[in-house]
Amino acid sequence: MNKIGFCSGILSIIISFLQSIPLGIYFASGISSYASISLNLFSNNNVDFFIWGTIDQSTLVVHSWLESNLISFFMLNLFMIITGIITIVGSTIEKISGKAIMSLSSLLILIVIIYISIFIPLNSIELIGISIDIMGLFTSLGNGYYILIINFTLALVSIRTHPLETD
Amino acid sequence: MGLRKTGFAAGFLSIIIAFIAGVPFSFTNETANSILNFSILIINNVEYFSWGYISNNVGYTSLGFNSIENLITILIWLLFFLPGLFGIMASSPKSIPEYSKKLYKLNILFISLILFIYTLDYIFSLFSSLSSAFFGFGYYLLYIILILNIISIKILKKS
């Protein structure tokens, strides 16, 4: 089993679905946490952007990409969910096909990073409804973006370290 | 080779310390009578954990801030989280013993570093006349994790 690939897959699933990573979890009438690390990609004008959608911090209104922008839904949310699933499946296949899946997953993560870094600032009005310049984006990057970079690095390493069965 | 149980237990405990603040126990009628707290240090009624601290029942962490302070906190938190990840990875049935041994050694280094930092912190707070400092349950759990990692290496060497 490709453990680094498996970790990359888990990271992909986490940033595809979660708003934050809970820290200091305690169990009082359900599961709660004292603190959390936000997984926002970047923030602009009090709006936090995630892989799955946006949160307006002033009104606390949540929009998923599925309802606000279909292109972003396909390029961000769907790509990351597919990446997470195929990476976890590919990490268990100790064949050349497994290695090909790991390569595909790293390519998908790279596409997501390029989409966030280049396409969103260039077409911000059409894609997310807010004007963002490229420098503005890079001064307001969040933890989610850095986790995405770590995820990409892990996916690249997992291609090299992918175990192949010897018959 | 099957799952290396001591290494897995050490990794699991490290993950618990990295994420969980407390676990309730001693239940009567679905209500917990007591909470097992994983705080590492308690100074002036402020409980310090791997991720931040709790003061007056409110948790604070600087892990999410975009500042230089964030990097130091992330590094300290990683010293808790990575032994968990490494411990579980090194204990899987198909893992290569040589690599597992290296990971366990790395875990021992990380845990020793944490223990050194918190012990130093405790000694410094003892010198301060205004503060009252105690070790929490998490501190002793770190020693258990350290011992479990050492046992894992010994078992690997024997096999």
Can you describe what's shown?
The complex is a heterodimer of chains A (167) and B (159). In chain A, 58% of the residues lie in helices and 18% in strands. Chain A has helices at 3-17, 65-68, 70-92, 96-122, 124-128, 134-138, 143-160; strands at residues 20-27, 31-38, 42-44, 47-49, 53-56, 61-64. Chain A has a four-stranded antiparallel beta sheet. A two-stranded antiparallel ribbon of chain A has the order 1-2. In chain A, strand 4 and strand 5 (53-56) form a beta hairpin. Chain A is globular and about 55 Å long. By secondary structure, chain B is an alpha+beta fold. Chain B has helices spanning 5-19, 68-90, 97-127, 137-158; strands at 22-28, 31-37, 41-43, 46-48, 53-55, 58-60, 133-135. In chain B, strands 6-5-4-3-7 form a five-stranded antiparallel beta sheet. In chain B, strands 1-2 form a two-stranded antiparallel ribbon. The longest helix of chain B has 31 residues, at 97-127. Classes of the chains: A alpha+beta (167), B alpha+beta (159). The interface between A and B is medium-sized, with 19 and 23 residues.
Number of helices of chain A: 7
Low-confidence stretches of chain A: none
Instruction: State which percent range the strand residues of chain B make up.
Output: 15-25%
| General shape of chain B | globular
Summarize the structure.
The complex is a heterodimer of chains A (167) and B (159). Helices cover 58% and strands 18% of the residues of chain A.
Topology:
The complex is a heterodimer of chains A (167) and B (159).
Chain A: H1 3-17, E1 20-27, E2 31-38, E3 42-44, E4 47-49, E5 53-56, E6 61-64, H2 65-68, H3 70-92, H4 96-122, H5 124-128, H6 134-138, H7 143-160
Antiparallel strand pairs in A: 1-2, 3-4, 4-5, 5-6
Chain B: H1 5-19, E1 22-28, E2 31-37, E3 41-43, E4 46-48, E5 53-55, E6 58-60, H2 68-90, H3 97-127, E7 133-135, H4 137-158
Antiparallel strand pairs in B: 1-2, 3-4, 3-7, 4-5, 5-6
